Structure formats: structure tokens, C-alpha cells
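REQUEST FORM: STRUCTURE PREDICTION
Request ID: SP-0412
Submitted by: Lab K.M.
Chain count: 1
Length (residues): 261
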Amino acid sequence: MDTRFAALAACALLLIACLLRWRRGDGPPALLCALAGMLAAALAIDGAIGAPGGLRLGLGEVLALYAWLVVAVQMPLRQRLHLAPLDLVVWGAAALLIALGLLWPQAAATGVTELSGALRLHILLSLLAWAVLTLATAQAAAGTWLAHRLRAHREPRITVPLIALERSAFRLIAAGWVLLLGGIATGFLFVEDFLAQHLVHKAAFTIMAAVLFGTLLVGQTLRGWRGDRALRWVLGAWVVLFIGYAGVKFILEYGLARSWT
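STATUS: Completed
RESULT:
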């Protein structure tokens, strides 16, 4: 299947799934449409990142793969971790990022041809951590929004209990933090020269984000941080993580015509 056609089909199916979810609620039509969109997106991403002997991991391809992973993690956990209220946001954002990542003209990126076991594990853990922590951030924001509506005696719109949203958010933060630490640890296994490989800023921002997420978990465990305070920490940590990957990669590829090696 042509990559651009598959990307367009994925975006259309995910947007239709959002419309069905909005109009008909949480039922099979929306879920089946979203799953079909995920399948089309997987075909598009596979065609986009394939390179002779390795992978092409430019900013666009990585953003599309990241968006796909967010939905892939969210779908099986929708009921167990109360992630169904995030359907419209997650599916809609995924459609946008897949379109932006695979259809927008991309800067030249060096293909990754030497895929050692450590590098494969590093890429997998890093992207999974980013996806899980994105869901955690969205869940924390949903919980805070629900708390504000309840305090204002307004219709909550989200039927999940507030305490359940907060618990699931911190479970996701803990899981994402462990994955992030694993990504950092495996990253050191293949780095030879941070400066020559243009990895200094990425490593610094990623470690900073890990410290912030870890501090939030300690604060929640020992001092019961929740609500607005917890949301500020998780948003700040997620922004640092986003800058460390997407922001630095954008500057390297579009501003300096370089890439990580």
C-alpha cells in the first residue's frame, strides 16, 4: 500500500472514529473504526521508516510512530485505567500527528543502519516511555478539570470518579518513569561521544524530565501531592521531555541539517 494513501486513510478513519465517539458514545462502531485507522497507520509508518539495512527515523516519522504508540497503549487500557474519556483527544491528536509526520515535507535524516540490540531496546523504551507519560499527563489534566467542575457545582461530563482518575494517572506516571529510566540506561550503552553524535541536549533534557517525574512520584507518596500541584509538575516534566526529543530534533534537522548518530 502506498505510504501517503495509507496515511490519509489512517487520518480519515481516526477522525471518523472521533465523530462516532462524539455522536454515538463508547460503542463498537467507534472502536472498530479507530482500530482500522491504527492498522492503516501501521502500514503507513512501516513504509515511511523502512530504509536499506535499517530505519529512517526523522522527526516526522518519529512523531507518527509516537502518536501510533499513544493510541496503541491507550486502547487496551481504556477500561482498566479509565482512559476512555480521553478518546477524542488521543485519537484526534494521533490523526493530526500522523498527517503532519508522514505527509508534510520532511528534512533529510540519516538512516539508522547499525541496529544493535541495545539501540533497538533504547528506541523501544524511549518511545514507549514518551507515549505512556503522554497518557499520564492527559489523565492528570482530565482529573484536575473534573475537580474544578465539581468544586464549581457544574455538570462533570466525565462519569469516572475523581479518585479513580488520579490513581490511574499516577500508575501511568510510575510505569512511564520506569520505562524512561530504562531508555536512559540503555542509551549509555551505545553512545561513544555525546558531542560528536549531537546527543548532549537530548540527554540533558531527558535526564531532567526523569528527575522531575521522579520528584513528583516522591511528593505524591510522601506528601500526598495531587490536584493542581501534581498537574503543574507533570505538565512541566512532560514539556521538558517533549523539548528534549522533538524540540532538539527539530532544531538539528531543520535548523542545522544534522541528525543524531
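NOTES: The chain has two domains: 1-113, 116-261.
Reviewed by: T.R.
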